[in-house]
Specification:
4-stranded mixed β-sheet, 250 residues, 24% strand, alpha/beta, 7-stranded mixed β-sheet
Length: 250
């Protein structure tokens, strides 16, 4: 996704919900911050938030970047904490297992977290048999492994944690009236995040969210909500839905 088409202030603001660790240079947020954008990065997982704080220590010191280790409350701001479910890649209880040794887990599992236990466990079915991964892991661990070495990787390494949540209305300063780019990757809760965003108070030029994990009802909810607030869809694939406001916000 190109940043060049966005109408920008001197130091445009990025708001990213579900920032993860910013390890991929393909993440538009990484490029935006490198260009000097201001940013509010929300990441509920403590380890990922700590990585972001270390990565952007200089920008945080100059108040250009703010890392918020919190989830987003619902649109009525009724919750103060939420339970998040995730793959525990640092666990030791399954070391040596033929079906759930975390050392065999593919790297994308480290990014998997959700408020829905069902959503996290729904990924287990695709890993019943994993010949390439299990062969590589057997070589790494120097012991034989069955091709079903991931068959219980999520079931046996599922962990949960209670995290705080914040209202987007309160998170954005009362003086903040313009967001150049709103990015959401909330593992299936993107529509609820959009519903909680104060579009009536804060002008947004572009919105990007991940449609692949949304139910049909939530996909339709997201599209109707954005259309209602004056956005048109620029493009969409399995990983990214990009919407642009039809007006010019300056």
């Amino acid at each position: 996704m190109s940043l060049h088409a966005l109408p920008l202030e001197a130091r445009p603001l990025l708001v990213q919900v579900g920032a993860n660790e910013h390890v991929s240079h393909h993440d538009p947020a990484v490029g935006a911050i490198a260009r000097g954008w201001r940013a509010v990065l929300l990441e509920p997982m403590p380890a990922f938030a700590a990585t972001l704080k270390l990565k952007y220590a200089t920008e945080i010191a100059s108040r250009g970047v703010r890392v918020v280790d919190a989830a987003v409350c619902d649109s009525k701001c009724r919750d103060t904490t939420r339970t998040v479910y995730y793959f525990d890649h640092n666990g030791t209880r399954n070391l040596g297992s033929n079906s759930s040794d975390p050392r065999c887990a593919p790297s994308w599992l480290n990014e998997l977290s959700s408020f829905s236990r069902h959503h996290v466990l729904s990924h287990q079915a695709r890993m019943r048999v994993a010949p390439k991964v299990c062969t590589a892991c057997a070589a790494k661990l120097r012991r034989p492994l069955p091709m079903s070495c991931l068959s219980r990787i999520l079931l046996d390494n599922l962990a949960q944690s209670t995290v705080r949540c914040m209202c987007l209305q309160q998170l954005l300063s009362k003086h903040e009236r313009y967001v150049a780019l709103l990015m959401i990757d909330a593992q299936g809760h993107d529509a609820q995040i959009l519903a909680a965003f104060p579009f009536d108070r804060v002008a947004v030029d572009r919105v990007v969210y991940e449609p692949s994990l949304l139910s049909r009802a939530d996909q339709e909810m997201a599209r109707r909500l954005l259309a209602k607030h004056g956005f048109v869809r620029l493009g969409e694939d399995w990983s990214m839905s990009v919407w642009q406001h039809v007006g010019q916000h300056v």
